[in-house]
Amino acid sequence: MMGPAHSLSGAAAWLGVGAAAAAAGHPMPWPVLAVGALITAGAALAPDLDHKSATISRAFGPVSKALCGIVDDLSHAVYKATRGPGDPRRNGGHRTLTHTWLWAVLIGAGASAAAVFGGRWAVLGILFVHLVLAVEGLLWRAARVSSDVLVWLLGGTSAWILAGVLDKPGNGSDWLFAGPGQEYLWLGLPIILGALVHDIGDALTVSGCPILWPIPLGRKRWAPLGPPKGMRFRAGSWVELKVLMPVFMILGGVGAAGALNFI
After folding, report:
1. Phi-psi region at 234: left, alpha or beta (left = phi > 0; alpha = psi -120 to 50)
2. Beta partners for 225?
3. Distances (CA, A) of 4 to 11, 22, 38, 174
4. Whole-number Å distance between alpha carbons of 117 and 218
5. CA–CA gap between residue 118 and residue 195 (Å, rounded)
6. Within 10 A of 2 (CB to CB), how many other CB atoms are there?
7. Radius of gyration of the chain (CA)
8. Three-class SS state of 222
9. Could you read off the pLDDT of 138-158 as tens digits, one per residue?
10. pTM, entire model
């Protein structure tokens, strides 16, 4: 799928989690709901770090472009080193390492560890990166015609404000993990969710997605999972733009209403 659809699906997924938590009697504080949705929207773009032309490659100028090149090479090297006898040869690393459940868990766990042990500046860095990506995904038309510096300023300012809101008692810095020193441990959860939602979205497209790596399936370690071929669509097609994106918006609205006990 394309960047906007990934971000919308990520935000909708977190809002759905918020609705489920409210239904179970453990509602999220509204700042956690809002910030989590934005982080998930941004994190849903991150698996495309292995693609030099993806939205994320443009998000942070030369830094993200260079990082995408490094991740592409790393992913390709891992693919070549671990491919099974049924896996085809490849010329690049797109839709390999960063499109797996293992990558999602490791990145989320790393973010949680950074948030807990790195202090406020680590939290601000995590928020900044994902808020910039959320702007690039959710407000992509405006982001494309705006200066990168303006997008970065918006992301940085929003990160500072939202961190201040979360730090207030009862607003969610210690949501879910209330032990001493565990503030912001939950930040890894929307990052994991965003990555997994991205992978599921890509699995619906023609090429499928090797979500289960390194678990082998028959003679393949990088089996591209997805629905039957006739049910898949091409990225950027009318199915994605005219059907899935409106559905994600509706689901997100329903999830937000449920999470805030409006329904």
Report:
1. beta
2. 209
3. 11, 27, 13, 30
4. 41
5. 22
6. 20
7. 18
8. coil
9. 997 787 778 889 999 999 999
10. 0.94
